[in-house]
Automatic annotation (TrEMBL):
Family affiliation: Belongs to the binding-protein-dependent transport system permease family.
Protein name in the entry: Sugar ABC transporter permease
Membrane-related topology note: Multi-pass membrane protein
UniProt entry keywords in alphabetical sequence: Cell membrane, Membrane, Transmembrane, Transmembrane helix, Transport
GO biological process: transmembrane transport
Subcellular location: Cell membrane
Organism: Pseudoponticoccus marisrubri
Residue ranges constituting the ABC transmembrane type-1 domain according to the UniProt record: 72-285
Length: 296
């Protein structure tokens, strides 16, 4: 007589029961908090939340505010440059490390070390490095090149690129490690077959290795994108949004309106737009990783 197969619902029952508090916490704190924020973004809340609904007025005001438009423009410039350069530099460094060079562990540690620093420390370090008086500009001028100019943090036209330099310095090491892990997962027989067939190394990387590392690239892009959306610490440490409002970013806009401007409704509206930006990143990633695969 065949035994009845156990119900899949009761498999690993103790583990599922142990996960209930975590699930409830996530539902209350994250889902509940998100719903509360979105709901009050349609109100006229000032210092304290209040249920005086004003429809889309907060969003209309948000997109008519010059400061918010500047912050969106800065985020787009920083985001596109950060994604492209982080992936490019990180992959090149990983490819070099994958050549079994001497002192690999030392170089890997040095390149990854900035990631261990907080964004505030990184921002302060690069604020000093880019200071025109005693940073790079001051040092080069002291060597005799008195006409040399390099003060991105004090130039409203290029200030976002000064912040980008600090961001790349801190984050590229992590991208390198992720890419190196992906490269080390490539079967060595593929490299041997490519060499036997006489395929140049750059073609092997471009047409064979990189397509095989698709999951690594997607995961890395999601990590980079999540860091871009919440960009705040570097800006505060380096420029505090200046000169003027030239280096404003959405996260700083939210913080200032909620805690300094005493306008919770406007801050909630801005944070809801940031949430929408995160969903735009996460939903395609989730589809590519889970929904787009054919079930066998």
């Amino acid at each position: 007589m065949a035994h009845a197969r156990p119900n899949p619902l009761f498999r690993n029952l103790m583990a599922k029961l142990a996960a209930i508090p975590m699930i409830l916490t996530a539902m209350v704190v994250f889902v509940g908090g998100t719903a509360w924020t979105v709901t009050y973004s349609f109100t006229n809340s000032k210092l304290l939340p209040r249920e005086k609904f004003v429809g889309l007025q907060q969003y209309e005001r948000l997109w008519e505010t010059e400061r918010w438009m500047v912050s969106i423009e800065n985020l787009m410039i920083y985001g596109i440059c950060s994604m492209v350069l982080s992936l490019l530099i990180g992959f090149v460094l990983a490819a070099l490390m994958d050549q079994k060079i001497r002192f690999e562990n030392t170089f890997r540690t040095i390149i990854l070390y900035p990631f261990a620093l907080s964004f505030i420390v990184t921002g302060l370090v690069w604020q000093w490095i880019l200071n025109p008086e005693f940073g790079i500009q001051g040092i080069v001028r002291g060597m005799g090149w008195v006409g040399f100019t390099f003060d991105p943090l004090y130039n409203a036209q290029i200030v976002i690129f000064g912040i980008l330099i600090a961001g790349l310095w801190q984050g590229t090491g992590l991208v390198m490690v992720l890419m190196l892990a992906g490269l080390r997962g490539i079967d060595q027989e593929i490299w041997k077959a490519a060499r036997v067939d006489g395929i140049p190394m750059w073609k092997t990387y471009l047409f064979i290795v990189i397509p095989m590392m698709r999951p690594v690239f997607i995961t890395t892009l999601v990590i980079i994108a999540s860091g871009i959306v919440k960009l705040y610490d570097l800006v505060v440490a380096q420029t505090s949004g200046g000169p003027g409002i030239a280096s404003e970013v959405p996260a700083k806009y939210v913080y200032d309106y909620m805690f300094s401007g005493q306008n919770l409704g406007q801050g909630f509206a801005a944070s809801t737009m940031m949430l929408l930006a995160v969903l735009i990143v996460v939903i395609p990633w989730a589809y590519l990783e889970f929904g787009g695969k054919k079930r066998v």
